[in-house]
Design goal:
- The protein contains no helices and 10 strands.
- It has strands at 3-7, 10-12, 18-25, 34-39, 46-51, 57-59, 67-71, 77-82, 91-96, 115-119.
- It has a 6-stranded mixed β-sheet, with no helix packed on it.
- Strand 5 and strand 6 (57-59) form a beta hairpin.
Length: 121
């Protein structure tokens, strides 16, 4: 099973930016899709951004144009660049590995602690 560890969250004012990192380890990581998720208090976990094994990306409508998912050359670390942050982006952010980029709700990795992102003035 792939181990995942998120970092990079923090407190930021509306309109600000953050870059989240996710370090993954395991023999199957490079052969799977990658995705970012978030869960706000009282809400269900939702898919934020997805990248296929070929590098194709999709985003939730709520973050499209503001967030960017990427992956390093070694395919051991993934990132989520978040710009123009809004208060509604406040949540705990997680990374995981979907079985397919077409079904990001079906994940294969273990859920980590996540990293808290708080957007507030």
């Amino acid at each position: 099973q792939v181990h995942l560890a998120e970092s990079g969250g923090g407190l930021v004012q509306p309109g600000g930016s953050l870059r989240l990192s996710c370090v993954a380890s395991g023999p199957s990581f490079s052969f799977n899709s990658v995705a970012w998720y978030r869960q706000a208090p009282g809400n269900q976990r939702e898919v934020v951004a997805v990248m296929s094994p070929h590098g194709d990306t999709t985003y939730a409508d709520s973050v499209k144009g503001r967030f960017t998912i990427s992956r390093d050359k070694a395919k051991t670390t993934m990132y989520l660049q978040m710009d123009s942050l809004k208060p509604e982006d406040t949540a705990v952010y997680f990374c995981n590995l979907p079985r397919s980029h077409r079904t990001p709700h079906l994940t294969t990795g273990s859920w980590g602690q996540g990293t808290q992102v708080t957007v507030s003035s």
